[in-house]
Input
Amino acid sequence: MKKILLIATGGTIASGYTQEGLAPKIEAGELLQYVEGYQDFCQVDVAQPFGLDSTNIYGKHWLELAALIEGHYRDYDGFVICHGTDTMAFTAAALSYLVQNSRKPVVVTGAQKPIDLPVTDARTNLLDSLRFASEERAHGVNIVFGGNVIAGTRAKKERSKSYNAFSSINYPNIATIRDGRVVFYIEDKDRLRGPVAFYHELNERILLLKLMPGMDGMVLNRLFPYYDGVIIEAFGVGGFPEYGQMPFYPEIRRWTDAGKLVMMATQVTHEGSDMEVYRVGKAIKEEFHLMETYDMTLEATVTKVMWVLGQTKEPEQFRRLFYETINHDILLKEI
Output
């Protein structure tokens, strides 16, 4: 029988009603009281490092979760993290970089409705997560939600209320869970090489900037003192506008000359960036040797940049680490 550590962090799954709206109230041990049948295949211990609405979760909490897993890694066969849905994709991506090459599963789950309601997705999601974490073939960081198993770097919340809130972007689901059975679509545990690796540094001085029609480069001028890097969500396959009193070109030069990162992403959810297609992208990419995110999600991009900059600021080393595929995060990339 597998031994699983259930890590509760708050979120809707553990929330109750207050005069100000839903807020985390249900403790870790109480969550298991609402789930039946897990005792048939696993033994569960609980931990609760914090209890927060996931809106309030960021880098220091990701590091805390990774450290908790590291501290108990030898004691358990798998880990299940109960988490709010709003930043769940960021947490799953961050943990994919902080806990690498794990032969043990790290499952992130949650719910669209609290677990103590008569009608809720919480009980199914938690039972599915415990089941997947107990599977011999499961490994690495994944989100289990709505019967789907999604690689931690490929998940995005695309629906704010529906039970099928998360989708896998530009990559297939790892598995599906139906009627108490796990059906794997992707099995690659045997490809893992070397021991599990834990990391302890993130650089959070990163900005994600979404372009809008009419925006000019002045915004980068104002943000320059506060960030070590900027990821720009551009239109379409990627490019910079050429209007405004302060164009983007000189501001990008200012950032790159100072050794700061400028990276191009796309606002389009599916299929990724390709700056080589149009002059507005190709010219500036070649002039400044800009990096782009290709088929990565924005959540994976942000957290991977934080992780890589936590390891190095040397440009070529950064480029090498960023374009190394980790937990299925990037397929299309520079050679």
The two ends are 44 Å apart (CA to CA). The longest helix spans residues 298-311.
